[in-house]
Amino acid sequence: MFDGCSSLVSLNLPNSLRKIEDYAFADCSQLESPIFPTSLEHIGKEAYRNCSKIESVVCPESLTFIGDDAFINCEKLSSITFNEGLTEMGWSVFANCISLESVELPNTLTSLGERVFNDCVNLKSVVFPNSITSIGNGAFWHCIKLRSLNFPSTLEYLGEGTFSRCDSL
User: Fold this and answer.
1) Within 13 Å and on the Cβ side, how many CA atoms surround 148?
2) pLDDT, tens digit, for every residue of 98-129?
């Protein structure tokens, strides 16, 4: 769609939009924080990959799925607001978002994909919801500033290497 449009700074998405396809805004290096319509249900694989100017993301309540690598390498991303509704995140969704310091996951989320927050080297805190049952392999690999964790009693699966190289734990 707009993959590689390096001059694209902002875009008004229509309120009728339900799905952002794979790679839709990948490598749009000047794109600033997107404003998602309240109808959005799905963000595809690598949709915002390498969008290095995005600083914040607010997920609408209608959003249920975020695909693999959707925000990978968004190095200035420092704020993510999850509203209730999100049930699944794919692999490496927020990997290498080096400005991200804290995350509070929504109560509707049941699983985290593999490497979902890996290499978020400034991530210090994560609040897990009581609904989470599965955290994938390497989900928080190399989150070197992560200091403490509280897991809910609903957690059934903790993947291999989930907290490897988390030197502050």
Assistant:
1) 1
2) 999 999 999 999 999 999 999 999 999 999 99
In angstroms, the CA 23 to CA 142 distance is: 26
Q: Give residues with Cβ within 8 angstroms of 122, minimum separation 6.
A: 98, 99, 100, 101, 145
Q: What single letter denotes the amino acid at residue 133? A: T
- CA gap 31, 77 in Å, rounded: 12
Given a contact cutoff of 8 angstroms between Cβ atoms, the answer to whether 13 and 36 are in contact is: yes
- pLDDT more than 70, % of the chain: 100
Give dist(CA 94, CA 10) in Å, integer: 21
Answer whether 0.90 is exceeded by the pTM: yes
Residue whose C-alpha is closest to residue 25's, from 38, 7, 37 = 7
Taking alpha carbons only, the member of 126, 70, 132, 60 closest to residue 96 is 70
